[in-house]
Design brief:
This is Large ribosomal subunit assembly factor BipA. Keywords: Cytoplasm, GTP-binding, Hydrolase, Nucleotide-binding, Ribosome biogenesis, RNA-binding, rRNA-binding, tRNA-binding. It is found in: Cytoplasm. Its EC number is 3.6.5.-. The chain is of the alpha+beta class and about 300 residues long. It contains 7 helices and 18 strands. The chain has helices spanning about 15-25, 45-50, 80-85, 105-115, 135-150, 155, 185-190, and strands at about 1-10, 60-65, 65-70, 90-100, 120-125, 160-165, 170, 205, 210-215, 215-225, 230, 235-240, 245-250, 250-255, 260-265, 265-270, 270-275, 285-290. The strands form 3 sheets. Strands 8, 9, 10, 12, 13, 14, 15, 17 and 18 form a 9-stranded antiparallel sheet that branches. It has a 7-stranded mixed sheet with strand order 2-3-1-4-5-6-7, sandwiched between helices. Strands 11-16 form a two-stranded antiparallel sheet. Strand 2 and strand 3 form a beta hairpin. The two termini are about 35 Å apart. The structure holds guanosine-5'-diphosphate (GDP).
Length: about 300
C-alpha cells in the first residue's frame, strides 16, 4: 500500500471540516448504518464518549491502494510555530479558498508557512455553489497572493480544482459535471503530492504533537524519518542539543485510520504515528533507536504551544 501525507489549509469557515467529512464518506470510511453526524475534525465529543483520544485533528482515508494521512493545521497566527512543525510532516497541501470570499488573512498566513516549508499546494476553489461565487477572480487573487509570498515557479504553477465540499464534488472546471464526486481531488493528490521520502537507518522521528491521553498517558505524534518502530521496542529520547532525556519502552503505536486511531504492530518510515509509553519526550525532541547519537534538526518552537486533550 502506498502513502501520501497532506495538510488541508484554509481560512476559518472556508469549508475544511465539511470537505474532510465528504472525503471520509466517499472513500468508504463510514459504514452505511453509521451516524455521520459527528464531524471529523471536530471530534471532541466522540473522544469524550469513547474515552479515547482522536485529537491531533488528523485522519486518514484510503483511495485505491493508497492511504492518505490528512493533518489539520490551526489557521491562526498565534500557532505559528505549531503550524510550521505540522506542515513539516507532510509532502503536500490542499488550499481551500471560498469562491466568493477569496483569500483571507488566515489564507495568507498558512500559505506563507506552506510555501516556506517547500510545499506545492493544490488550490481548491470551494463553495462554488454560492450564487456570489467569482471563481476566476479568486484564482487570480490566489496567484497574486502566492507571488507576493515569494512562491517559486513550481509553487506558482498550482493545479486548480473547483467545487463544493458540501455537495461532495470537485472538478477541473467550475461547472458541475454530470458525474460529480471528489474523485478528481483524490486523483490529483495521488498525482501531484510525492510519496513520503524516507531516509535509511534505524528508527528516528521528531516529536511534533504532544497530547495526554487518560488511558495511555503521554502520546507523541510525529512522522517517522527512518526505520520502524514496534510495541515494546526500546526508544531513546534526545533533546535538540543531543542530550538523552530518557530511554524507555514503547507501549503502544497508534496510526490514523479513518476517524480513529488504531493500534498497529509496526510504524514504518514515512508514516505519521502516535507513540505511547515514554514519559519525557516532547515537541521537537528526537525519538530514536538507542544507537542513534545525533538528534534530527527540528523547527524552532515559537511560541511553545503544546496540544493537550484534557
Ligand atoms: P471550516 O471552519 O473550514 O472547518 O469550515 P466548515 O466546514 O465548518 O464550514 C463552514 C460553513 O460553510 C458551514 O456553515 C458549512 O455548512 C459551509 N460550507 C461548507 N462547505 C460548503 C460548500 O461547499 N458550499 C456552501 N455553500 N457552504 C459550505
Amino acid at each position: 500500500m502506498s502513502l501520501r501525507n497532506i495538510a488541508i489549509i484554509a481560512h476559518v469557515d472556508h469549508g475544511k471540516t465539511t470537505l474532510v467529512d465528504e472525503l471520509l464518506k466517499q472513500s468508504g470510511v463510514y459504514r452505511e448504518n453509521e451516524r455521520v453526524a459527528e464531524r471529523a475534525l471536530d471530534s471532541g465529543d466522540i473522544e469524550k464518549e469513547r474515552g479515547i483520544t482522536i485529537l491531533a485533528k488528523a485522519t486518514s482515508v484510503t483511495w485505491g491502494d493508497t492511504r492518505i494521512n490528512i493533518v489539520d493545521t490551526p489557521g491562526h497566527a498565534d500557532f505559528g510555530g505549531e503550524v510550521e512543525r505540522i506542515l513539516n510532516m507532510v509532502d503536500g497541501a490542499v488550499l481551500l479558498v471560498d469562491a466568493a470570499e477569496g483569500p483571507m488573512p488566515q489564507t495568507k498566513f498558512v500559505v506563507g508557512k506552506a510555501l516556506k516549508v517547500g510545499l506545492r499546494p493544490i488550490v481548491a476553489v470551494n463553495k462554488i455553489d454560492r450564487p456570489d461565487a467569482r471563481a476566476d477572480e479568486v484564482v487570480n487573487e490566489v496567484f497574486d497572493l502566492f507571488a507576493a509570498l515569494d512562491a517559486d515557479e513550481d509553487q506558482l504553477d498550482f493545479p486548480i480544482l473547483y467545487g463544493s465540499g458540501r455537495d461532495g464534488w470537485m472538478a477541473p472546471e467550475p461547472d458541475r459535471p454530470d458525474e460529480a464526486s471528489l474523485a478528481p481531488l483524490f486523483d490529483l493528490v495521488l498525482d501531484h503530492v510525492p510519496a513520503p521520502a524516507v531516509a535509511d537507518g534505524p528508527f528516528r522521528m521528531i516529536g511534533t504533537i504532544l497530547e495526554a491521553d487518560p488511558f495511555l498517558g503521554r502520546i507523541i505524534t510525529g512522522r517517522i524519518h527512518s526505520g520502524t518502530v514496534r510495541p515494546n521496542q526500546t526508544v531513546k529520547v534526545m533533546d535538540r542539543d543531543g542530550k538523552t532525556l530518557e530511554t524507555g519502552r514503547v507501549s503502544k503505536i497508534l496510526a490514523f485510520r479513518g476517524l480513529e486511531r488504531q493500534p498497529i504492530e509496526e510504524g514504518a518510515a514515512g508514516d505519521i504515528v502516535a507513540i505511547a509509553g515514554l514519559s519525557k519526550g516532547t515537541v521537537a525532541d528526537t525519538f530514536c533507536d538507542p544507537q542513534v547519537d545525533e538528534p534530527l534538526a527540528a523547527q524552532p518552537i515559537d511560541p511553545p504551544t503544546v496540544t493537550m486533550s484534557f
